[in-house]
């Protein structure tokens, strides 16, 4: 599968990127007020399709987990994405991938509410999550896999300084068939992403 073609930058979005870069707080811990929207984000097919719908799940699990550790834990973690005008735009997540030595690699994910997509928030939230992980942990590699047809996520990752590493054949079962994925990663010593 060839790499997606790079497209000329959209000047309107560059303004948004610069505005969001002045805001250090696009990510914050999940709050109680987020839980109902978060549950809908993960349990309503229309919120997740076409690439993130993996079937129904326990709708009460989100609150139970939040009450236990605020969704920041050893095995996996989530932060809320706060759009520039406040509120809740979705989540970013990460979990350790087994490596030697332990703690060297995490895999991250993101899911935004449909009304917050396509405004530059996904690019900036993922860039900020990587900076946060490099600043607060000894992680050397942050990786992210996505569907071969998920062009928005591939572009967002590239804009956030990730390099495309390869295709993972038949790695996800979505919509009744096995699908190929693409693996991206950013290493601690990789160049920082360009300013927009
Ligand atoms: C994928 C996702 C995180 C991207 O975040 P976003 O805020 O919507 O994307 P951005 O506005 O930052 O745009 C990133 C790039 O993708 C492009 N893009 C955005 N939506 C697109 C679409 N529907 N189709 C093609 N390209 C798209 C943008 O033009 C931009 O490219 P550019 O910088 O070359 O102009 C977000 O759309 C989302 O949460 N989608 C649903 C869940 C999902 O797919 N998560 C990733 C799973 S691995």
SSE inventory with pairings:
Elements: H1 11-21, E1 27-28, H2 35-43, H3 45-48, H4 61-69, E2 77-81, E3 90-96, E4 105-112, H5 121-136, E5 141-147, H6 151-159, E6 163-174, E7 177-187
Helix pairs in contact: 5-6
Brief rundown of the structure:
With 196 residues, this protein is an alpha+beta fold.
Fold and architecture overview:
This protein is of the alpha+beta class and 196 residues long. 30% of the residues lie in helices and 27% in strands. Helix 5 (121-136) crosses helix 6. The protein is globular. The structure holds coenzyme A. Residues 7, 9-10, 13, 51-52, 90, 109-112, 117-123, 146, 150-153, 155-156, 159 line the site of coenzyme A.
Strand portion: 25-35%
Q: Could you estimate the helical fraction of the residues in percent? A: 25-40%
- Name of the CATH class: Alpha Beta
- Rg is 16 Å
Q: Considering the protein shown, what is the CATH homologous superfamily?
A: Gcn5-related N-acetyltransferase (GNAT)
């Amino acid at each position: 599968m060839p790499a997606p073609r790079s497209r000329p930058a959209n000047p309107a979005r560059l303004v948004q990127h610069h505005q969001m870069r002045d805001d250090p707080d696009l990510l914050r811990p999940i709050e109680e007020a987020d839980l109902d929207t978060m549950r809908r984000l993960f349990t309503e097919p229309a919120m997740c399709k076409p690439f993130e719908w993996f079937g129904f799940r326990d709708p009460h699990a989100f609150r139970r987990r939040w009450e236990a550790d605020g969704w920041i834990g050893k095995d996996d973690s989530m932060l809320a994405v706060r759009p520039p005008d406040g509120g809740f735009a979705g989540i970013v997540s990460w979990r350790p991938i087994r490596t030697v030595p332990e703690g060297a690699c995490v895999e991250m994910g993101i899911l935004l509410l449909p009304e917050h997509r396509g405004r530059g928030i996904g690019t900036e939230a993922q860039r900020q999550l990587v900076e946060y992980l490099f600043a607060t942990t000894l992680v050397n590699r942050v990786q992210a896999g996505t569907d071969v047809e998920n062009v928005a996520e591939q572009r967002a990752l590239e804009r956030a300084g990730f390099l495309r590493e390869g295709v993972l054949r038949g790695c996800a079962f979505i919509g009744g068939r096995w699908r190929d994925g693409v693996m991206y990663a950013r290493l601690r010593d990789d160049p920082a992403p360009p300013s927009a």
